[in-house]
Every structure is written in structure tokens, then in C-alpha cells.
Write a structure and sequence with these properties.
single chain; 11 strands; binds fe (ii) ion; 188 residues; alpha+beta; two-stranded antiparallel sheet
Length: 188
């Protein structure tokens, strides 16, 4: 279930519409898409991009995105630890980070201009658009898996600029399942 926590305000929102409203006020787009368009969670990249062509086209018009692809990360991913190291330190991009989750779970931490720390857990059906320049970091959840459509404004793809703030170290990479299982990949 999608969840938004505002860590420093001890606030948690679980209603998708309310999450969309809250995030919209700080320029982050959150919405639910119909995930039942795919015959299988393991559909090929081509099938996925075809099934969501209309939604992707609309986003491209709105945000000037020029390419879309599907990222697959799971326990079998080669060099998984090294890959997660790239995501789980606070960084920003000079383009929007747009992710539509198809499978698995993800945990976005966002540090707002006001200094709030937002934690957003996403799952199948969640679209999140984090505006360029927003400081954030990303972890997997206990299932250690995410499959997502990504959109880019530049053909060069994913380029992170690390802040070096180490703000990420102050927050455990937890997902909000009943067992609060800690992410199995250690930073050290
Ligand atoms: Fe990022």
C-alpha cells in the first residue's frame, strides 16, 4: 500500500488522493494508474511501453520527456549492491525523475526546500514525478525488487549529482510493512 510519511512532523498519509494533494503542493506529482493493462508482471519492455503508450505520450507532452524505458532491479541483478549505492545517497538531477512502478516496491526519501523529510513507499500502479533539482534518495524494500517505467528529458539518461550531505544516513531505509524489515543491503 502506498504511504507518505513526513518524518519530522510525525505524520503519515495512506490515502492515495490525499498523498497526491500533499505532494502536489510541493511540486511532486503522484497518481495511480491502472496496472491491470498488462497480461503479466513479467511482460517484455516492448509490451509494457506499448500498453502504456497513451499515458507515456501524455507525460511526454506535459514534461518534455524524450525517452522512456523499463528498469528491472531484483535479487538476481548483477552488482546489485553497487547499483543501490548509486541510488541510496542523497542526490538530485537536472531533469525530473519519473517512475511508474509495475512490480515490487520502492522507497523514496525527499528532502524538501523547507527541510522536511518525506518518505514515500511506492508499489505497483504508482506514478511519481519528482521535479528536477529535488534532493532525494532511493531504497528497495524487503522484497528487493522493483520494475518501473522511467521517462527522461535528456537522452543521456540517469545522471545523479550527489550532495554529500549524508542526510540519508540519518534515516533507516525502512518500508512500512507490518514487520518493518530493514533493507538487506548494507551501506558499509
Ligand atoms: Fe534520483
Amino acid at each position: 500500500m502506498v504511504s507518505l510519511k513526513i518524518m519530522n512532523k510525525n505524520l503519515e498519509i495512506k490515502n492515495p488522493e490525499e498523498i497526491g494533494e500533499y505532494l502536489g503542493k510541493i511540486g511532486i506529482q503522484y497518481e495511480r494508474w491502472n496496472w491491470e493493462k498488462l497480461s503479466s508482471e513479467d511482460a517484455s519492455q516492448e509490451e509494457i511501453l506499448e500498453a502504456y503508450a497513451r499515458e507515456i505520450g501524455k507525460l511526454k507532452e506535459q514534461g518534455g520527456y524524450v525517452t522512456a524505458d523499463v528498469i528491472d532491479i531484483n535479487k538476481k541483478t548483477e552488482n546489485l549492491g553497487a547499483m543501490l549505492e548509486k541510488f541510496n545517497r542523497e542526490h538530485w538531477h537536472d531533469e525530473d525523475e519519473v517512475r511508474y512502478t509495475l512490480k515490487g516496491h520502492g522507497l523514496f526519501h525527499i528532502r524538501t526546500e523547507d527541510g522536511d523529510i518525506l518518505v514515500i513507499e511506492v508499489e505497483r500502479g504508482d506514478l511519481l514525478r519528482v521535479l528536477r533539482g529535488t534532493k532525494h534518495w532511493f531504497n528497495l524494500c524487503s522484497d528487493m525488487e522493483i520494475r518501473a517505467i522511467r521517462l527522461f528529458q535528456q537522452k543521456s539518461g540517469w545522471t545523479p549529482y550527489y550532495t554529500g550531505s549524508r542526510a540519508d544516513e540519518k534515516f533507516q531505509p525502512l518500508c512500512f510493512g507490518p514487520s518493518f524489515i530493514k533493507n538487506a543491503v548494507s551501506r558499509d
